[in-house]
Amino acid sequence: MIRKIITVLILIPLALIIVMFAVANRAPVLIGFDPFGAQPPMFALVSPLYVALLAALIVGVIIGGAAAWVRQSKWRRRARRLSAELKAAHAETEALRRQLESNHPVPAEKQNSITAIAYRHPSAA
Question: Which of 28, 68, 117, 121 has the fewest CB atoms within 10 Å around its CB?
Answer without folding.
Answer: 121
